[in-house]
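TODO from last week: model ROK family transcriptional regulator.
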Amino acid sequence: MPTTPSHREKTRDELLRLIRTGGGMTRADLARSSGMSRSAVNGAVATLLAEGRITEVETEQKGPGTGSGRPGVKLVAIGGPVAGLDFGHNHLHVAIADTFGRIVGDRRVDIDVDLAATEAMDAAADLLEGLRRELGLDSVEAVVAGIPGPVDVRTGLVQSPTILSGWVGRSPAEELTRRIGVPVHVENDAALGAMGELYAGAGRSHEHFLYVKASHGIGAALVLGGALYRGGTGLAGEIGHTNLPGSTELCRCGSRGCLEAVVSVDYIREQVAHTHPGLAAEEIPLDDDADSVSRRILEDSGRILGRVISVLCNLVNPTAVVVGGELGSSNNCFVEGVDEAVQRYTLPAAAEELVVTRAELGTSAELRGAIELAVRSPVPAYGAGASH
């Protein structure tokens, strides 16, 4: 069962990130960039060297008159390419990145992920294999996948038939590992979105924030103290099926009045389609170029979501709410609606330091999060097929 990362683990992760993104750094560079003491840097570097995640290489000898005739030593990350898999409710996105986390190739297809688990996992393995061959790679060293439903942190099994019915009782980590031939670590997709924003997006300046994925479903993830909070069994952040009093819309889970049934891409498109006769729902823009009626509907939907989010803000006191997914990433009106409700219903003292913002990584946050965790392998693991 995964545990909350310790301060030492966070220090190592931060230094590894700096080494990767900098393409190699000296200990002095690390101390200067991180603001850590030299002793803290040396301790973390010793651990990373022992784990085989970095190595030391000599730099070129300095020339005459530079004050030093000895070569310097810098630290560089080692390891091969990694892969990220993003299973959405209606799509699959696969990418391969180099050891520095730079994506070198990706493929995306539309597929019914919810009801076709076997087909979706087969497609992921095939896409990854094809992409690997196309790039001329012998293998990938680590794979992280995100699925749009909760995974039990104790067993690695999907256990919520109301959210991801085609996957219930299955271990995606084990099944993907068997198909791909490399240990696969599996997370909830919103959790990966939060990790993407934490490492490379709007969450970089926040230790405590809430990430919300607003798309065909509604999911959320909590980052507390700079670490992902999963809860006792991995269900933390599952807000999509929160009941809204007075709402009767039928949800795919079989209940009525769920948040996801009222605030989702599909439901909003149905509403907008009534005012756009002659246009198919999927043809109507929901981005910042939307017409005034569509913008009003989007803003109202954002307010509904924001009121639910305000409860979480009162509970855990984050300093930011990062709104991603198809709705949060493409429309300011929707995010403004979320912001208005969050500011209105969150306690004034908590709201004073709280910002609501669009995800910087857009709809790529989940895939970016998968890559970021993969390059930091070994990642926290659970389930027989997870990475160690």
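Done. The chain has three domains: 7-77, 82-193+366-375, 204-360.
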